[in-house]
Amino acid sequence: LTRWADGKDCDSDTCSRSGWPALVPQVKAAGDMQAQAKLANSLVNAHPYVEDMANWKVQDYWETPYEFLKKSGDTEDFAITKYFLLKAAGVPVDNMQIVAVRLKSLGGVGHAILLVRYGSGHTLVLDNRAALVMDVNAVVTEYQPVLGINDNRWTLYMP
């Protein structure tokens, strides 16, 4: 959050605002929160997956959206960029949570997703591994949540 600084301009080898000003109104104009989440997922998932070691020469690095736009990123970077894109489009942060999960079908490998709550008791899963946004109830057996975060809170999930 501190490095993002509310979208402070940047232009360097590792950071670029280019493209962001067009993304926000496009997502905002998509309609209701569900439509906005689907469009944000699609727009961000169009970027290639790049490991932190290739991008940053470190094992783990959480990118800002502008760093993601410049260099692309790995799972948490997709989730972070979707989070900030939806936040900029007006989705309340209390309706969203970036969640570090273990993928059960892959032996517990670490991954990150974005959860978006909308309407009465509905939660969408935005995952860079899936083109379609899914209802959390349809994929609950795939993800073992570990830690969730947003602007206002941290949640530790117990097995």
Describe the protein in words.
This protein is of the alpha+beta class and 159 residues long. The protein contains six helices and six strands. It has helices spanning 20-28, 33-45, 52-56, 65-71, 75-88, 136-139; strands at 96-103, 109-118, 122-126, 134-135, 143-149, 154-156. β2 and β3 (122-126) form a beta hairpin. The longest helix is centred in the middle third of the chain and has 14 residues, at 75-88.
Question: Which helices and strands occur, and which strands form pairs?
Answer:
Elements: H1 20-28, H2 33-45, H3 52-56, H4 65-71, H5 75-88, E1 96-103, E2 109-118, E3 122-126, E4 134-135, H6 136-139, E5 143-149, E6 154-156
Antiparallel strand pairs: 1-2, 1-5, 2-3, 3-4, 5-6
Please count the helical segments: 6
Overall mean pLDDT: 93
Strand content: 15-25%
Runs in which pLDDT lies below 50 for 5 or more consecutive residues are: none
Order of helices and strands: HHHHHEEEEHEE
Q: Whole-number radius of gyration?
A: 15 Å
The amount of helix comes to 25-40%
Query: Cα distance, first to last residue?
Result: 28 Å
Strand line-up across the major sheet:
4-3-2-1-5-6
Write down the overall geometry: globular
Largest sheet: 6 strands, antiparallel
Oligomer: single chain
- Given helix and strand content, the structural type is alpha+beta
Tally of extended strands? 6
